[in-house]
Amino acid sequence: MSSKIGRPTKDNIEFYRHDVNSHEDEKFLVLRDRYGWEGEGKFWALNNLIGQAEGCKLHLEKSYQILGVAKKLDFTLEEFRKYLDFLINECELVIQDGEFIYTNRVQELYRAIKRKSSKNQDHYNKQKEDFQPTESNLKVAESTLKVAESSLKVPETTGSPAEEIKPFDGVDPVRKDMMNYWGVNELSNFGAVRDITCFLNFLSTSGKLEIFKTSFSHYKKHRELSGLTKHSIKNFIGSGYSDFNDGAWSSENWKMKCEEVIKMSGKKTTQSDFVYNRPKEAI
Question: How far apart are the C-alpha atoms of 20 and 28, rounded to whole Å?
């Protein structure tokens, strides 16, 4: 029986949408008629507390839990009970579910994030299952870990640590293309070149180098057409500790994103725009 271990996710939200015309809603008119603008402000403060709660539902079973929220909103216990009852029964801005309260706005966003997180986790686990370790790529992984550890230390010699890891067969053209794209070289940026080499060597042994070439071509075209800033090298390739599955190169469908930008811009392209071309000259 296998267990899937993924990256931990938070069980709440960090933000939610606030419409600029929300104050014109009839429910808020009713709220302000009774409690004024202060009452509306306290509603949004309560909404924030709901968003921070586990599952985005605020637990109000015990008196001390209710009092804690009341104090945060500058209410007495009795004032808060009346205020909450008004939000639930008169304004219908808050929903009661047994000993929990929540709002539709926060719950809708929370569920959407959970669905996306679940989809991403399934994709991440699928990639982990598809990767079958071999003696060759295990050696690359071990080498990658050693590089990661050594990068935390100050080199004792003036030689280039990048020379310690050589590119595998078929890797060097792509490596030079990446070096040229990010403007790094072995003399001044040995750490970055070393990371690129480890990354590409790993992809080569795991049979993903050709997939990366296609993804990289679309990524460069997307950045060119959209005008967006390119990722840092580390954020683009990801971490060797996760088999480089957490990098931007694999976390997005760059072909689809590129096509979306092209459609929006109306720019005409040909298939040759997305074919990986070996650089004529790189650093």
Answer: 13
How far is Cα 234 from Cα 237, in angstroms, rounded to an integer? Answer: 6
- Say yes or no to pLDDT of 275 above 90: no
Nearest to 22 by CA among 104, 110, 107: 104
Identify the helix (H) or strand (E) that includes residue 117.
helix 104-130
Separation of alpha carbons 38 and 217, rounded Å: 54
pLDDT of 122 higher than 70:
no
| pTM score above 0.70 | no
**Please, are residues 25 and 42 in contact by the beta-carbon 8 Å criterion?**
no
Across 97-111, 158-172, 175-189, 268-282, least confident range: 268-282
Closest CA to 142 of 72, 202, 57: 202
Query: Could you tell me which residue, 282 or 28, shows the higher pLDDT?
Result: 28
Ranges of CATH 1.10.10 domains, the chain: 22-108
How far apart are the C-alpha atoms of 108 and 241, rounded to whole Å?
34
- Provide CB contacts within 8 A for 38, sequence distance 6+: none
> By mean pLDDT, which of 28-32, 79-83, 267-271 is the weakest?
267-271
Assigned token pair, 23:
């104050």
DSSP string, 129-150: HH----HHHHHHHHHHHHHHHH
User: Could you tell me the two tokens for 40?
Assistant: 């509306």
Structure tokens at 171: 């890797």
Would the pLDDT of 160 be above 60? no
CB 274 within 8 A of CB 218: yes
Q: Which two tokens stand for residue 33?
A: 């008629």
CATH class of 22-108: mainly alpha
Displacement of CA 12 from its chain's centroid (Å): 15
Percent of the chain surpassing pLDDT 70: 73
Q: What is d(CA 170, CA 187) in angstroms, rounded to the nearest whole number?
A: 22
